[in-house]
Amino acid sequence: MMAKNPKKESITWSFKEYEKYERDRGWYLLACIIGASLLVYAILTSNFLFALIIIMVGMVLVIKHHNEPDKIVFEINNQGIKFNKNEYKYSDIENFWIIYQPPEVKNLYINFKFSLKPRLSIPINDESPLAIKTFLRQYLAEDLEQENEPASETLGRLLKL
Fold first, then answer.
1. Span 106-116, pLDDT tens digits
2. How many structural domains does the chain have?
3. pTM
4. What range defines the domain where residue 108 resides?
């Protein structure tokens, strides 16, 4: 739930660390067939690094399946953004944009000035995209050219990763 605190001039909400998708037996069967096929290919071509990567991806999927996502608290205020123990000043942020295409996509995206820092994707869930956009426009440029969810996130959502 969004809370506007006039004293701190902030907007705060929480969300799950990652989306935990419901996967049926067919998804797991297909994932195992693809994983095993890629593993056999890697071994036959003596590409052992690729084989190791396939095994590691499988382990990550199993671990994520058995763990519940943590709850993340996110805040935007007049000094910057905060989530969990991370804080970023507006001077470190290049721009932001919001993609609001309910019910599938409701995200705030933040680009940093440092090319090594990955783009942040923040679910806004049932919060007001207009209130968030209005607040952030006071401090940051909005990237109006972004009209769709990044392809990597669309693919991850479609494949239930």
1. 899 998 988 78
2. 2
3. 0.71
4. 3-18+71-158
